[in-house]
Amino acid sequence: MNVLKRELRGGFRTVLIWTLIVAGLNVMMIAFIKSFTMDAQALQEFIKAFPPELIKAFGLDRISLAEPIGYYATEVYLIVILAGSIFAALTGASLLAKEEDEKTVEFLLARPVSRGSVVVQKALACVVFLLFFNGVITAVNLVGYAVMVEQEYSQTALLQLSIAPFFAQLAFAGLAFLSGIFWTRRRAVYSVVLAMTMGTYFLGMVSLISERMAWLRWFSPFRYVEAADIAIAGSIHLPYALGLTAVSIACVGIANLIYAKRDISV
Amino acid sequence: MAAIETTHLKKYYGKTRGIEDVTLSVDEGEIFGFIGPNGAGKSTTIRTLLNFIFPTGGEARVLGLDPVSESKQIRAQVGYLPAEVGYYEDMTVRALLEYSAEFYAMDDVTTKRRIGDLAATFELDIARKAHTLSTGNRKKVGICLALLHSPRLLILDEPTAGLDPLMQRRLLEVLADENRRGATVFFSSHVLSEVQQFCHRVAILKDGKVLRTEEIGRLRTGQFLKVRATFAPGDAPDSLGVPGAIHEHRENHTLELLYNGDINVLIRQLGNHRLVTLALEEPPLEEIFMRYYERGGETQ
């Protein structure tokens, strides 16, 4: 497992920076909660003035910004899932692509290690990074809410909302990991996976706004862990979480098959 | 058993030729040179043997194993130096060497000793980060990585490129020691003098094809003689007109040629003219190889 160890050691600083920035933003957003929940009536009136499409897109037709869980689902969750998914996509994309881009692939594959083992160890490193990122964010959320929120709220719902982005991130990381097989220059693969992440985010938004375009939701990992759905249900929809995990595993499996058979470029 | 054996090995990248027909056999325990001009296919052959790329046709065995299906077992016994070396730039030289040793399950004591020995031999500061290394030092790190686990077969792609002459000599000495230990050394080069000094046999590659595999001694001697004769004014012939004389070239009173016929015939023919000076010498390998490249290996 020395490839895994090397990845964890080599990538930890980047992961820590991402984690601290997103956790810091979360703390800041949680600190603002009082100003939203103080005058619920006035806030509801203010939101009513928004275009109906916007209200729908952010799930404000189903949940209330004035309640702690509603606030998290509409304000804080967006940061975690969007930034976290970008982080996951970039991390996943770089794991294989960087070896060819930086010409270290001959160093690595000249050693007695199978390509399959390299793929699996790198994928595991990505999972560890995501677990660390989401573990810290979840801890920050739970502690932040316990310290700064005075109103009653469901801790279970908060926990579920904190964990949910992990599954979308897994799917993005898997898709990006697979992309790293085809685009072996970091700049190229980063562009591809950023376009994929932002593109599917907007697909998800469109599917929420327009009834006619609702079918697009199936193509957006974001929509499988929709904050409003989780806030209302109080839990993640398990089949969706499993589906996102399956997408990720399938991507790694396909990456493994292709990587084992293709020429290495340097 | 041959350390490396290929039969009509071929590699195409789509329609682009990598190698066309590489047939060679490297015996265990020998030092084998693989030479050719840039683009001849030396690196492509090596990268096929190590399964970085997949062959389009032909067959190959390395240490009796199949490079595609048994690549991991091959790499456990091979030390490889790529022509262009890439490292994890955030790591120190020591960390790179230790990381490499982990793959070969080397114990800590052996690893530490080997790293110390190699660093001393190649005058390498192992505390430096990879991104601070000069081209020559990067090459030295690559050489240490290839040698670290005392492999059975060393495959080195242009190993002396980027090294100063002193370090080149030291490398060749170390490789000779490795060879005495029993290691087979297979190295590519376009620096003919090192091949001349160092190898037992050599394969000449041109346009993706092995033109010849030859013992260095045979290649150098018994085949061509470089002749330089200066004649008295007015008696210098344009050509000696003897069989086996090629590349005849006269400038003023001096005639130069390459000769691979009966020496007595040559001397008799030269005696028909009034000689001032005569020099006979073995031609440098450069001249022999140039002829291979020019004539596609037809010249014997």
Describe the protein in words.
The complex is a heterodimer of chains A (266) and B (300). Chain A is built from 12 helices and no strands. With 266 residues, chain A is mostly helical. The two termini of chain A are 24 Å apart. Chain B has 300 residues and is an alpha/beta fold. Helix content of chain B is 33%, strand content 30%. Chain B has helices spanning 42-49, 71-75, 93-103, 108-121, 135-147, 165-181, 192-198, 216-220, 263-271, 285-295, and strands at residues 2-13, 16-27, 31-35, 57-62, 78-81, 153-157, 184-189, 201-206, 209-215, 225-231, 245-251, 254-259, 275-281. Classes of the chains: A mainly alpha (266), B alpha/beta (300). The A-B interface holds A 2, 6, 10, 102-107, 109-114, 261-264, 266 and B 13, 47, 50-54, 71-73, 75-76, 78, 80, 82, 84-91, 96, 99-100, 102-104, 145.
**Oligomerization:** heterodimer
Mean pLDDT of chain A: 92
How many H/I helical runs of chain B?
10
Helix content of chain A: over 70%
Domain tally of chain B = 2
Helix and strand element order of chain B: EEEHEHEHHHEHEHEEHEEEHEH
Can you tell me the number of structural domains of chain A? 1
CATH class of the largest domain in chain B: Alpha Beta
Report the biggest beta sheet of chain A as strand number plus sense, adding barrel if it closes: none
The number of distinct β-strands of chain B equals: 13
**Overall 3D geometry of chain B?**
elongated
Number of strands of chain A: 0
- Looking at CATH, the homologous superfamily of the largest domain in chain B is P-loop containing nucleotide triphosphate hydrolases
Using only CA atoms, what is the Rg of chain A?
A: 20 Å
Mean pLDDT of chain B: 89
**Which class do the helix and strand fractions of chain A yield?**
mainly alpha
